[in-house]
Amino acid sequence: MNLHEYQGKEILASFGVRIQRGKVAQTPQEAVAVAKELTEETGTSWYVVKAQVHAGGRGKGGGVKLAKGIEHVEEIADQIIGMNLVTPQTSAEGKKVHQVLIAEDVYYPGESETSEFYMSVLLNRAIGKNMIMYSTEGGMDIEEVAEKTPHLIFTEEVDPAVGLLPFQARKIAFNLGLSGGAYKEMVKFVTALYTAYEKSDSNLFEINPVLKTSDDKILAVDAKVTIDDNALYRRKEYAAMRDIREESPIEVEATALGLNYVDLDGNVGCMVNGAGLAMATMDLIKMAGGEPANFLDVGGTADAKRVEEAFRIILKDPNVKAILINIFGGIVRCDRVAQGVVDAYKNMGDAIQVPIIVRLQGTNADLAKEIIDNSGLAVHSATLFKEAADKVEEVLS
Q: Which listed CATH number (3.30.1490.20, 3.30.420.100, 3.30.70.120, 3.40.50.300) goes with 21-105?
């Protein structure tokens, strides 16, 4: 589950991570009131107005602006709230901005210069350990840094059974070129950041940039946080932070129905049981010259009701030109799935206007093929992968 920047910062602050302070506002008028509160609490007279959407690169799309005085806050907030923000991480249509974060200006003048760093904490699945990735090149796209200057990206592996050791935090601060008070502050920052990642059941904490202020404070100016969905049952306070306005409406509906669904950009809808088979099915569609329109795992209970629900979800995508059902009958028998497909098709009537290919393999696969072939419906049956691929290619041509 993705969080907004202001929500991620709330979690960071709760674990002792120093953050750029700010408050969220839903309207331009509320933004002014928030700015006044922020001045009373922090003394800031300049304000950073940030669009709150689940996408990076907001500044490039005009979603992050500096208000040089409280008199400019309402005008800038009015420009951002309600806009469709287009960034490198959104679609061409962009994402509608419903709220803004009014944050303090932390780039204040001083005797020494400020520095920006990149830092993230995530799981390295290849080695089964957590990893802190960091760089001196903060404020830039980390992908660009990796491509052009890979030697400026450092990693520190952390055994989850042991946790982050003090020497590792010191090593990170040293590799970032810090000394004196900034060095000590970075050690504290890294330690608190790793604790926040571990204790919040997160998949990702990404801070870009981490700022060294002119008076050697270290703080998080941004925060991209992803919470592990599987841990939300014990993290009710984080589950309440979910903003479904930022998610695909189809995915939200599918989740409510208990379907594992991911919306994609292709033209062939997939209905499969099992994540591994779903990935193989998507490869099959690509090999047949199509593009998968979704990932949909119906699980082990592919009865008529569940198949009908899956049909309706898939058909909400206007780009779908065909549907491939690929079920392996292990826990669930193929003939029951086939009957479920036939019953669902009849229940939906004219709602289905695209070709359907059904590949059933496993227990009672022969019976399943007979049910499909004798149904009288415009459903193409297959038993082999190659046969299914040929039929997908045929209906798309």
A: 3.30.1490.20
